[in-house]
Each structure stands twice: as C-alpha cells, then as structure tokens.
Amino acid sequence: MQPRVPTRQQFAPSFRQLSRLSFWLHLFLGCVSGTMLVIALLSQDAAPQAQTALTPIGMILACGAFLAIGFRAYWAYRYRHLAQQLEHPAPGACPTRDSVIQALKIGLIVSCAGLVAAFFAAEFMGIEALTKALAQPQGAAIYTPRIAVRSLDILFLLASLNMLGAHLLGSFNSLELLHWITE
Fold it and tell me: Which residue ranges does UniProt annotate as crossing the membrane (predicted)?
C-alpha cells in the first residue's frame, strides 16, 4: 500500500510548529556563533602568529556558514508564513504543493552548503590549533607567543561547531518536511 500524501490540514500545523522551532534554534545558535566570531575577529592581535595557509580560508568559511545561518533563520520565518497560508480556508490563497516543495528544497540546499562550510572551517581551525600545539615543546615554558594555542583558536573552532549544529538541525527539519510532503 502506497503512503498517502498529507492533506494541507494535516501538513500545515506540523509545518508551522517545525518552522517556529527552526527559526528560534537558528536565531539562538546564530547569535551565539556570531558573538564568538565577532569576539575572535576583533581580538586578533597584531603579534605575528604561526598560521597555516588554511587559516584565512577557515575564517572566510566560518563567516560564510554564519551568513547561511542568517538566511536559514529568515527562511524558517518564511516557512511560518507558508504554513499560515496553507491553513487559510480559501483554496486560492494557499501556495501550491510545488511551491512548498521548492521552498523546502532551497532551505535544504542552504543548510547543506552551510554544513559543508562550517565543517571545513572547523577542520581548518582545528588543524591550526593542532599545528600550534604540536609546535610547542612539551613540559616547557613557551617563550614564543606565535606558537601558543590561543583561546581565540578555540573560539573559532567552537563557533564553527555551533554553526554545524544549526545547519544540521535545519537540514533535518527540511528533510523531514520534504519527505513527508513527497511520500
């Protein structure tokens, strides 16, 4: 027996609830990640640091993943409006099934792009922290500040991991809704 595609009365309340949850999670995780990124970017000191060639790329990718979170928060807010339109009693005021599927696909694509960007940003920043940690003599005092692992290195890494979580949740949200509406 083939699974039935949900009616708009069945789909709209779940769509509205998941979009509200997605909006607030993206907003919260975006604010936390953004705050960490701003602090880390503004706290860069002028002292020469041991950086790998991947460090600037990691920072750019982290900023890109942050922008994708901002877009996903907006897109989740747009999902809420689509859900409200689906709940409208007049059939002419409702978006088509195809337009809802298209909106979910766009959200999924942005989340996947953000996942990739945040993953590589975390990898690159982790490589930098590991490179600095391996360059330190074990058990000895560090007299060369450029090889010290700074808290900013860890802050970039944590911001990227928060962004990974936000994009992962956004992907699950879009995938579940897309799966349900296209069964």
Answer: 21-42, 54-75, 106-127, 147-169
CA 149 to mean position of chain CA atoms:
25
CA-based nearest residue to 73, from 17, 16, 25, 106: 25
Confidence of residue 47 (pLDDT cuts 50, 70, 90): very low
Tokens at 26, concatenated: 């993206």
- Averaged pLDDT for residues 34-55: 72
pLDDT at 164 over 60: yes
Residue 37: name the closest of 169, 165, 171, 162 by CA.
162
Q: How many C-alpha atoms does 153 have within 13 Å on its Cβ side?
A: 22
Cβ atoms of residues 65 and 118 within 8 Å: yes
